[in-house]
């Protein structure tokens, strides 16, 4: 199992991250598709080649081809949207919020999987991307569609742990410190 490969690659100082990673796949209240799509989308959002490869290998066993592609699409579209909407918010000039974005985003309307799942993956990617506007928007959609706050929290927890795994593995790959 490739999640196991990631756990084994974590050094002793990242024991908490290792334990958290192990519990993500064993204690989830999300559907299998929601869980593995969130893992895959957030792995892609970290930009860590090793994390992407290892999570992708496992996710392929749990996701249909359509769901696998949709999780990748969520990471892709949110990479763009997180930068754009975070910037228009942080500039502080309300005029930017009234201007058309002029960014093509049709995948959000027709992602090829249940809209709820795609929105959840977009929310988790936005946690890594740090876009408050995107987090608020996607959280509202998934909550209105019936997900609990605990399920939203779980998706954000997945994003946090996957991001920590990627940070640690990438740091170790360049031999940071002594």
UniProtKB/TrEMBL annotation:
The reactions it catalyses are: N(6)-[(R)-dihydrolipoyl]-L-lysyl-[lipoyl-carrier protein] + a hydroperoxide = N(6)-[(R)-lipoyl]-L-lysyl-[lipoyl-carrier protein] + an alcohol + H2O
Q: Does the keyword Chaperone apply?
A: no
Q: Where is the active site?
A: 131, 134
Q: Which cysteines are joined by disulfide bonds?
A: 131-134
InterPro entries attached to this UniProt entry: AhpD, AhpD-like, AhpD_core, CMD-like
Stored SUPFAM superfamilies: AhpD-like
- The Enzyme Commission number assigned here is 1.11.1.28
Keywords in alphabetical order, please: Antioxidant, Disulfide bond, Oxidoreductase, Peroxidase, Redox-active center
Residues of the Carboxymuconolactone decarboxylase-like domain = 97-170
Please give the superkingdom of this protein's source: Bacteria
- What is its quaternary makeup? Homotrimer.
By sequence similarity, the record places it as follows: Belongs to the AhpD family.
Described function: Antioxidant protein with alkyl hydroperoxidase activity. Required for the reduction of the AhpC active site cysteine residues and for the regeneration of the AhpC enzyme activity.
* Record's protein name: Alkyl hydroperoxide reductase AhpD
Organism, per UniProt?
Microtetraspora glauca
User: Lineage of the source organism?
Assistant: Bacteria, Bacillati, Actinomycetota, Actinomycetes, Streptosporangiales
